[in-house]
Amino acid sequence: MTEAAPRKTSLFDRHVAAKGRMVPFAGFELPIQYTGIVDEHQAVRTAAGLFDVSHMGELELKGEHAAAVIDYLVTNDASKLVDGQAMYTACCNEKGTILDDLIVYRAAQDRWLIVCNASNHAKMAAVFEKAAKDHCEFADRTDETALIALQGPKAFDILDQAGADAAKLRDLKSFHFRDAVIGNVRCTAARTGYTGEDGVEIFCAWNDAPALWDQLLLLGAPFGIKPAGLGARDTLRLEARLSLYGNDIDETTNPIEAGLGWVVKLDKAMFVGKDALAAVKAAPLPRKLVGFEVEGRGIARHGYPLRDVDGNEVGICTSGSPGPTVGKSIGLGYLPTAMAQVGTKFLVDCRGKNIEAVVVKTPFYKRASS
Amino acid sequence: MEFPAELKYTKDHEWTKVEGNRITVGITAFAVEQLGDITLVSLDVKVGDELTSGKTFGTIESVKTLSDLYAPLNGKVVAVNQDLDAKPELVNEDPYGKGWMVVIETSDSAGIAQLMDEKSYGDHVKAS
């Protein structure tokens, strides 16, 4: 198999013009940063940030049985959703390990959208297409759908400037979505995000994204909006303890040990991985994904071994970086359940140097409720 | 990007200021730009340590990545910039000044001869 050249989103020229440093990411060329990760991170926490997340996969399922097909594939209970509501969920294999984490949107009883990670797009398109066969219509809308995330405490003040309809998005409830007009762009806005801040994620036609992007940056300028890249997206989501597929969760981890037990609904009808997950839940958990602070001088990185205080290797770091808002060096990692209690001391093996760390409560950062 | 003409450079994007047999070492503005926000500088040497050209003497970490620091030539450490412990951002703010890392005393004239001038280094940056 040959690696295809990375694709460009419809905002590529905007990123280059804004001096974004473009890097290959999940088959796309995307900006890792513009002005700097910390600067963009702080803009999102204190004002607003604009992210191009058009690389995400969008899968549409339509028809009478679409709901049943989705509910069979995901661990959370899609039957509880009403029109215009979305939910976060895992999608597991028969072993109960995680194929991907998704957001499932119910537009209508017979019309659903699944947003999957770009890195899993081909895999998830195949999973949903196969399950849909003979039961409902399947369409991969990824190539025609752009996605822009507007996140931060000023997000709705900025939308107030973007027309009468956009101003009413403030009334949208968390994990709800609706068709909207922002500026002069027809779109679908969802009150979701991956930063720990309030805001919206906006779906629009691929070629409408530059107009939407330009308007939001222009209207947001007096509020301190900044375009934000993949680097800030990662530090923001880590402080909010949102899982990153490929780092914290993958096909070797199950949702229960990853702290995602709340999206596993064993009381619903048959779904892929249910038996395996019931067995996981019935037995003592061997390990758990925990949040930690590095107390010594060091930064934990994905893949660094975690050791007990005697130096024995007992786990692995899955994510780590300086937390610009919390002002500490933070991380996530799998530790034996006996070591997973808040306050437990252990060591992070930073390339041969054992640096002290301690298990802490997560999320590391929680925004003040408005 | 312009690089100071009074300095000499390595392919690992370090600058050196040669004053007799004393060489001050830091990383270039290009390296700083590539790293982004520098959050941790670990200089794993102390005054008196012998350095071997090409061997690491520390690490520099930004939010996203970790990079090794390589000794540009053989020599003995005569000064270490302790300020970077508490203020790693000095490397971002003033890479050729307050962001210096170590001073080496050297008799490695062959090593010095191999350092690049600002023009060769500029070409090296364009090629990388």
Provide a short characterization of the protein structure:
The complex is a heterodimer of chains A (370) and B (128). With 370 residues, chain A is α+β, with helices and mostly antiparallel strands.
Question: Overview of this structure, please?
Answer:
The complex is a heterodimer of chains A (370) and B (128). Chain A has nine helices and 20 strands. By secondary structure, chain A is an alpha+beta fold. In chain A, α2 (37-46) packs across α8 and α3 (66-73) crosses α4 (121-132). Chain A is globular. The mean pLDDT of chain A is 97. With 128 residues, chain B is an alpha+beta fold. Chain B has one domain (8-111): OB fold (Dihydrolipoamide Acetyltransferase, E2P). Chain B is built from five helices and nine strands. In chain B, the strands form two sheets. Chain B has a six-stranded antiparallel beta sheet. In chain B, strands 4-6-7 form a three-stranded antiparallel beta sheet, with no helix packed on it. The A-B interface holds A 32-33, 36-39, 231, 234-235, 297-299, 301, 321-322, 324, 329, 351 and B 36-37, 39-40, 42, 59, 61-64, 66, 85.
Strand numbers in spatial order across the main sheet of chain B:
1-2-3-9-8-5
CATH C-level name of one domain in chain A? Alpha Beta
Radius of gyration of chain A over all CA atoms, rounded: 21 Å
SS field, number of helical segments of chain B: 5
Order of helices and strands of chain B: EEEHEEEEEHHEHH
- Spatial gap, N to C terminus of chain A: 50 Å
How many helices of chain A? The count is 9
Q: Tell me the total number of β-strands of chain A.
A: 20
What fraction strand of chain B?
25-35%
Give the C-level CATH assignment of chain B. Answer: Mainly Beta
Radius of gyration of chain B: 13 Å
* General shape of chain A: globular
Structural class of chain A: alpha+beta
Q: Which key terms come to mind for this protein?
A:
heterodimer, A: 370 residues, alpha+beta, Gyrase A, domain 2, Elongation Factor Tu (Ef-tu), domain 3, six-stranded mixed β-sheet, six-stranded antiparallel β-barrel, 9 helices, 20 strands, globular, B: 128 residues, OB fold (Dihydrolipoamide Acetyltransferase, E2P), three-stranded antiparallel β-sheet, 5 helices
